[in-house]
Amino acid sequence: MSLLETLRSVQHTLPEKYKSLTKTEMENRIFEIKQDLGSKLFIPCHHYQREEVFQFADATGDSLQLAQISANNREAEYIVFCGVHFMAETADMLTSNRQTVILPDMRAGCSMADMANIHQTERAWDVLQSYFGDTILPLTYVNSTAAIKAFVGRNGGATVTSSNAKNMVEWAFTQKERILFLPDQHLGRNTAYDLGVDLTEMAVWDPIQTKLIYEGTLENIKVILWKGHCSVHAHFTVKNIEFVRQTHPQMQIIVHPECSREVVARADLNGSTKYIIETIENAPSGSEWAIGTEMNLVQRLINRHPDQHIISLNPIMCPCLTMNRIDLPHLLWSLENIIDGKETNVIKVDEETARGAVLALERMFKK
Fold this sequence. Notes:
Number of helices: 15
Number of strands: 15
CATH superfamily of the largest domain: NadA-like
CATH architecture of the largest domain: 3-Layer(aba) Sandwich
Shape: globular
Order of helices and strands: HHEEHEHEHEHEHEHEHEEEHEHEHEHEHH
CATH class of the largest domain: Alpha Beta
Structural class: alpha/beta
CATH topology of the largest domain: Rossmann fold
Number of domains: 3
Strand content: 5-15%
Strand order of the largest sheet: 7-6-8-11-9-10
Helix content: 40-55%
């Protein structure tokens, strides 16, 4: 089921009473419920969550890490996932049937994941097979829907994370001559380039036009990049880097590989969210950093490391808007529904989809 279909099928409107509560009232009530439910409740929080929610996390991390931590927590009956829809889907697929995964606000989606739906993907696959035959292996970033993960799993491919993308792309080339990388073209391009694939050997699939964008001979194509991107990381630009170089010449620039190739090429360092956090944590006092990733995380790093000079690479960045839909009122609402015996905004992936998606995930876990 797509996110749009899910939204149409559930009641996700926050009751009016939660809009009149003060921040302190909501925080106190959440603390009470957490204490009452004890080990029956587990709240994983993604690094990009707003601070008012992040403070209640039982575990923090990136999307796949949190799903795995949730799966290893056998005591929890309710997993209230503070992230976005595809993350909660993965948690549901990896946890046991007796555990219930809840997303506090069903509107918390991911624009990147929504840039590749199963209908577009199956149509693209048919066209690409007609061009290249059985020479393509599909890979999908974990920032994708369960349906896309299942498609990849059924066709011999695997999922990747920003941390292991290089290893997975290397593996993919041992399986087939070409890869189709979904849904983030920038992570795919940056990863393939770092592994020695020339930009002239990469094409882009446009799912809206149902068209392969490439200038040259088809036989030279090694990587087919889905035309998708992260709406947050797309806002870091070469001009941002040039400004930092001019105004803070001693400052190091570190960015996420979801940024464009031009930005990554001009940065000093690039890597996953975990890599960025660990780099800042291990940096010496007095070091200077411009960070190109989501603003909630950047602000958290600024607050935690006052001995370093840290700024956002783009000074007018907004937090991830869909991730920020998880707020105190929605978190409290979901928890009170559990107390009242109601299970609102439950994330449940159907068995057939889960089977294919888990296959794609397991191929990654084995590498």
